[in-house]
Amino acid sequence: FLDIIHRSSLEESVVKSKDVYENDNSDRVKESASKTSSSGVENANQNVTILPSGATKKGKAVTPSHSNHRRNTSYDILWFLVPSLFYKLTPIFPIYAVGIARIVSTKVFLMLHYIFVDKDNYNNKIAQKQLIREKEEFLLASIMHMWAQIPLQIIFPSMFFVADEYIGECAWLTFLSHVFLVEPLYYTVHRWLHIPEVMKAMHGFHHLSINTLPATANVQNFKEHFIYIATFGPAFFAPWLFSGRQHWMIIGAYLVLFDAINAWGHTNVRIRNPLFTSKYSPLKYLFYTPEFHLGHHAYFQANYGLFMPFWDHFLGTAREYRKQEPPLAPANQQDFVFIGHNGGLGHLLTCPEWSVYNVYDSYKFLLPMQVEAILMKVVGTIARLFMKFYYCPRYFIDDKYVGRIICIVRTPWDFASPKNYPAVNKDIVNLIRHEHKRCGTRYFGLGNWTKMKQLNNGGVDIVDLVEKDAYLQDKNIRVWTGDTLTTASVYKQIMDFPDLEELFFIGGNGKIGNAVVQLLIKARPNFKIRILSKYHAIKHPNVSYTDNLKEMLNFKVVLVGKILPGRKYDQALRGSDAGKTCYILDYSVPFIPIHTKHHKQIKHIQIGLLESTNKMFLKGPFDVCMSHDQSHIYPCHACCIINAAEKRETNETGEIEIEDVERYWDKALSYGLRNRDISKLM
């Protein structure tokens, strides 16, 4: 039976679709896959077939090897609560104890793997599409097993509730059942799942993940979960059938340990000690390494075993696999630091330490802004007792330099209170000093509010503090704001409206706003700009001022460069006529959605955001925790990176040099950076 399955899979071949290669590292997978069998593996991204010899030939598009169905996850929390409805029929504590233990252990494993394995490995970047898909699915197995436990507890109570004195016996019998029943059964079922028709119907969903995370182990097609419940069930049933006893704590411990070992096989850890690789070592056949299972994800038709490679070696399906990656830069190399800060509770929840699946989420505002600011002030105050700075993952610049975002432990409250400004500026200088001592870093960018005019005069005061610092004054430290490229990005985005003759500007008096106004008037002498402000900062016949936000409805385009409380927009829009407004183009950071339900024709669109199209210039997680999509970057961040790559030896602080705007835009284009395409949103 197994030979028939194997021949069938070899003859028909499981063809990977474009979706299979949805991550940035599929080229390495193609190299590995080309060595596996007599059948080629086609990569639909490049539309070529990879042959065993390494030769390539043109191929044609093929049917995907998986279903495109997406499960509705809106009600998962309700599914999690369903077992509580059966509290009168069976004890629900064991159900929730096991379910919660599995969920918590999975999340902890994911967090530890990020911190100790993936954080600084810029070669192992996971595609946003994969993160979204896995986030929707990785906890489903735990919930489904909770559901399965309900009828089993009701029908077979002795399978869960025996005296504690039998726990040791149950544990030993469960272990033996796993080794002698579950392992060979899983191997057989897994071979069956790789028959092309079954692969497309179910198992191909799991194999969409070529570069894996620990939680990828639990990401399966919905129907496939039922297959696995039946496959792993003998670990519980066999001891119960043999002895008439089983204990829910052993079942729970088995499932938690099973999840951990399964997750281990999907990690990015290299274990190449002879104890696990030598053909003379028993461990080679009794316990797998992550690369053994990653070889299954790369080859498809090899390494089918669960945790024991014995069955693959015995039946001839074992294949050696070594995941090849370019060497990483030295751990202490850090050529550039972009200085950030906390942006609120929603920002905190995108940190990969909480969950790597959240790093491209938009910031969620779960509480009123004032309440959230107070809460985060408390969190920040406590955090500063234990940490000086928060380190984001490092990324690679132009195949030579290492960059990293490092945040001072400051929250929005600190930037709203002038009495905190000296302490914030001191933190910035302390960070610069610390990173120069630690890594010799000389190039620093100021992100978002760390360069506010009220805080440090657009970075000018930071330069002064650095030049007066006893340690830093002779270290040739360079400080940049990157606002030149933000100005260029916003200006070019407005110029993409060829017939636009006027706009309403919220934040036009700011540093970037002032520069954008100058550029627009210079390019279009008759262009009219209405700025929301009581202070008349710009003296020009084409520029006028108002303090009435309702006037925005008189303009087709509203440009926003300043965060206003949502209630002000609500007051301006509620009860007003539809007006002319079609687009609110917003480059403020963070981007906070404006509710325009009273005027559905108004589209609130984020601008001032660049897309990176050159993967050789920027590599790794330069784009995480920023409330935007993968491969996008804020222009100020990108500008500082360009300065670092070109080793600019002057500061870029204070007012924007208008003559530099076009030059930096040309630089950005040459590095594969372009404005985010907003045409589909309009």
- Structural category is alpha/beta
Oligomer state equals single chain
Estimated radius of gyration:
29 Å
Provide mean pLDDT, rounded: 88
Low-confidence stretches: 1-67
Give the neighbour order of strands across the main sheet. Answer: 8-7-4-6-5-16
Described by strand count, sense and barrel closure, the largest sheet is: 6 strands, mixed
Termini separation: 57 Å
| Percentage of residues in helical conformation | 40-55%
Overall geometric form: elongated
Strand content: 5-15%
Task: Explain the overall architecture.
This protein has 682 residues and is an alpha/beta fold. The strands form 4 sheets. It has a 6-stranded mixed sheet. Strand 5 (389-397) and strand 6 form a beta hairpin. The relative contact order is 0.08. Mean pLDDT is 88; it is low at 1-67.
Write the layout of secondary structure elements.
Blueprint: H1 2-12, H2 26-33, E1 41-43, E2 48-50, E3 56-58, H3 76-81, H4 93-118, H5 128-137, H6 140-155, H7 167-193, H8 196-201, H9 222-232, H10 234-243, H11 248-264, H12 274-277, H13 283-286, H14 290-299, H15 310-315, E4 336-341, H16 345-348, H17 369-383, E5 389-397, E6 401-408, H18 412-416, H19 421-439, E7 443-446, H20 453-456, H21 460-468, E8 478-480, H22 483-495, E9 502-506, H23 511-523, E10 528-532, E11 543-546, E12 557-560, H24 566-573, E13 583-586, E14 603-606, E15 610-612, E16 618-619, E17 632-633, H25 635-645, H26 661-670, E18 673-675
Parallel strand pairs: 4-6, 4-7, 7-8, 9-10, 9-12, 10-11, 12-13, 13-14
Antiparallel strand pairs: 1-2, 2-3, 5-6, 5-16, 15-17, 15-18
Helix pairs in contact: 4-6, 4-11, 7-9, 7-10, 7-11, 19-21, 22-23, 22-25, 22-26
